[in-house]
Design brief:
- The complex is a heterodimer.
- By secondary structure, chain A is mainly α.
- Chain A has helices spanning 2-19, 21-24, 27-37, 56-70, 75-86, 101-128, 136-152.
- The longest helix of chain A is centred in the C-terminal third of the chain and has 28 residues, at 101-128.
- Chain A is elongated.
- Chain B has a single domain (34-174), classed as Glutaredoxin.
- Chain B is 39% helix and 19% strand.
- Classes of the chains: A mainly alpha, B alpha/beta.
């Protein structure tokens, strides 16, 4: 009798395990979905990734991506699917092409301009600030001070 | 005085860029589908679910495809514009009831009026994804060969209709 009761008690555990299945059904696919979705932008909440967003469209797109993963499509094919429909805007890493050259090269350009300006300014300053003229007495005084310093320490 | 000229020039350029940035609407993402063939679809109609509406049915004419839903606020906003457009009959409007409940879609049209020639139901939102829809209402101008020529994101208004859509429709109808 007691054994049967124990079995009965276990039934709810079985049921709940059954319900949780869809999420954990394929942990590998879910992990892939997550890494992909972290690199994709949700178009409704534009500063959220597809992984974070709870917008209905984001849910739909995750469903699409999940299905494409199930169809064994490569990451590139999945990204292309979304780019074809929503443009490069869905990618958090924009591709390097004619319209994005300034975006990619701009920072380096600014670095070169900034570095060049700094070098120029430093060189100009080196010219304008004259080296202080020291007389023979000054040299002697310094030498004396230094030698005194070494004695003291 | 001269030493301030360069920083001032840089400041003006930066303000210029930021000023242009402020006037742009970040919600309007240019669609890569403009100039490309409209994605194929075949979906049950709203009023007669046994009948289908497909892209093939619309070959040979210039038409508007309007994604809407009964739950969508912007659709209510643009609705009078569509009603007016349907009344003058210059271009047929086909509706796509996007991720909506059939009964609610029908009730919405009964209440506010039906500007559409035929309405198809995209319950799962899949056709919407194929068309790159990310916020209803969205409206596409599709030409006789089935190519998307223009996409309007957000509610239509009279000025967009007069300045962009209708001139384009007339031009496409001439072809």
């Amino acid at each position: 009798m007691r054994r049967w009761l124990l079995v009965l008690l276990l039934i709810p555990c079985l049921v709940s395990a059954e319900e949780a299945k869809p999420l954990a059904e394929n942990p590998q696919a879910e992990a892939r979905l997550k890494t992909l979705a972290l690199e994709l932008r949700c178009l409704v909440c534009q500063n959220q990734t597809l992984a974070d967003s709870t917008a209905p469209l984001a849910e739909d797109l995750r469903r699409e991506v999940r299905e494409m993963i199930a169809k064994n499509m490569s990451d590139q094919e999945i990204r292309d699917f979304l780019v074809q429909r929503y443009g490069d805007f869905v990618l958090y890493r924009p591709p390097l092409k004619a319209t994005t050259t300034f975006l990619w090269l701009g920072p380096f350009l600014l670095l070169v301009v900034g570095g060049g300006t700094l070098a120029l300014a430093l060189r100009r300053r080196a010219k304008t600030v004259p080296a202080p003229a020291l007389s023979a007495e000054d040299h002697q005084a310094v030498a004396q001070m230094l030698s005194e310093g070494t004695k003291r320490s | 005085m001269k030493r301030f000229l360069l920083p001032l020039a840089i400041f003006v350029v930066v303000v210029g860029f930021l000023g242009i940035g402020l006037t742009l609407n970040p919600r309007e993402v240019p669609s890569p589908l403009v100039g490309k063939p409209a994605p194929d679809f075949s979906l049950p109609q709203l009023h007669e679910p046994q009948q289908m509406l497909s892209l093939q049915d619309l070959r040979g004419k210039v038409w508007l495809l309007n994604f809407w839903a009964s739950w969508c606020g912007g659709c209510k906003e643009e609705h009078p514009v569509l009603m007016q457009l349907a009344k003058n009959g210059e271009v047929p409007i086909y509706g796509m009831d996007y991720k909506d409940r059939r009964d609610e879609g029908i009730a919405w049209l009964q209440r506010w009026g039906n500007p559409y020639s035929v309405i198809a139901v995209d319950e799962s939102g899949r056709v919407g994804i194929n068309y790159g829809v990310y916020g209803v209402p969205e409206t596409y101008v599709i030409d006789k060969a089935g190519v998307i020529r223009y996409k309007q994101i957000g509610p239509l208004d009279e000025s967009i209709l007069d300045k962009k859509i209708m001139p384009l429709v007339r031009e496409l109808q001439q072809q």
